[in-house]
Design a protein that fits this description.
Number of strands: 12
Distance between the termini: 15 Å
Oligomer: single chain
Shape: globular
């Protein structure tokens, strides 16, 4: 717990994303900071390039046909979902953002508006945290976003600035971005990263110590109170949380259903371009957590799907993304290796191995010891940073 005046902490992350993992990591960091006596709030920065693909200005400035095509695709996809998509789940996500995360200020859509708000009385914080998720991953349509490095040309009224568990999304950073990122890292008072590969990148570019800390969902650890708020959630199902592709994960989920006798439940994905896997459901964030807690087996190709399987001690398999998407497996591979569970990341092209791993029990006691050490690493880092506010 903090001593002295209540610290006011501003968090910059993907708190607004229509994605369960993004919302849960935001909830995890905010909840843990509140448990330490802080007033933790989200800075409502909502750049178009994160959810809608980018603005028309981004389209004009984008270099290369691939980047321009991605902006067009994401903008059309967002418009299609807005006009014709099932809005049930989206409304539940937005309700969670508004009521549970308590996003207070109006949307800030660019760097200038965000900096101006931070220097206004309403935006005066003791500490700013750029926190978790793939906020440091360059996008094809935008490149590096300096706001997610807490870089503001006019400053931010003297607030201490730190990172907590940001991810580059991959094991490497394109050398074209290294000089820019090096400059932004110089502004940060405290450095940490979520993957060991990220620690190595930040340490090399900054020449400073970098803390290796877990995702905020692991930092918080206990999501049972949130799951307890869910209604109309059964038990004994196979929970299939698929992002980016249905390739491979479909076969693994079918095998899990065959072995457990449970039906396959899969949350709606507004960006899904593959045939439905099992039965599509439209859960609230609380229900999403409860579906993991009450599952007989979890199959996911998502980092946070893997995390929640571990937090709830559920039998699970993490399915590796195939082909061009394989570089995104770094996040799950790093986590599972750290917990002695690397063998739970499977390649669906080797179903003999999938069968074998599905039958193997998990030594949860051994996992618990490693998980506790990870949590203490993250909590210790943040406690040290909070103490510096009173130094």
């Amino acid at each position: 717990m903090t001593s002295g005046p209540t610290p006011r902490i501003g968090i910059l992350t993907y708190h607004f994303s229509d994605n369960f993992g993004a919302l849960m990591q935001a909830y995890g960091l905010q909840s843990w900071l509140k448990s330490q006596g802080c007033r933790a709030e989200f800075i409502n920065y909502r750049p178009a390039h994160v959810e809608a693909g980018g603005s028309l200005r981004d389209l004009i400035k984008a270099r290369g046909a691939k980047a321009k095509a991605k902006i067009v695709y994401l903008r059309l996809s967002a418009l299609r979902n807005q006009l014709f998509g099932d809005r049930t789940q989206q409304k539940l996500l937005h309700r969670f953002q508004r009521e549970t995360l308590g996003v207070a200020c109006a949307p800030l859509q660019n760097e200038a508006a965000t900096e101006a708000w931070l220097n206004s009385p309403a935006g005066r914080f003791d500490m700013l945290i750029c926190g978790s998720d793939q906020i440091w991953a360059p996008s094809q349509q935008r490149g590096i976003d300096p706001v997610y490095y807490l870089h503001f040309p006019q400053g931010a009224q003297g607030a201490r600035r730190i990172s907590y568990a940001p991810s580059f999304g991959k094991a490497t950073l394109d050398s074209a971005y290294e000089a820019e990122v090096t400059g932004y890292l110089r502004d940060l008072d405290g450095l940490s990263a979520r993957e060991q590969s990220g620690v190595e990148i930040v340490s090399r570019l900054s020449g400073r110590p970098v803390a290796y800390v877990p995702d905020p969902t692991i930092l918080l650890g206990d999501f049972r109170p949130l799951a307890a708020q869910a209604t109309a959630v059964g038990a004994g199902h196979v929970f299939c949380y698929a992002l980016r592709t249905g390739q491979g994960i479909r076969d693994v989920a079918a095998l899990a259903a065959q072995k457990t006798g449970g039906r396959i439940l899969s949350p709606q994905n507004p960006h899904r371009r593959w045939k439905e896997i099992g039965e599509t459901i439209h859960p609230s964030p609380e229900q999403w957590v409860a579906h993991v807690e009450r599952a007989a087996f979890v199959v996911s190709n998502s980092f946070h799907g893997t995390v929640f399987s571990i937090l709830f001690r559920k039998p699970f398999l993490s399915v590796a993304l195939p082909g061009a998407k394989a570089s995104l497996n770094e996040r799950s591979a790093n986590l599972l290796s750290s917990l002695g569970l690397r063998h739970r990341l499977v390649d669906a092209s080797d179903m003999a191995n999938v069968h074998r791993r599905m039958e193997e029990p998990i030594d949860w006691q051994a996992v618990e010891e490693k998980l506790t050490a990870m949590q203490e690493s993250g909590r210790g880092y943040l406690r040290r940073e909070l103490k510096r506010l009173h130094a």
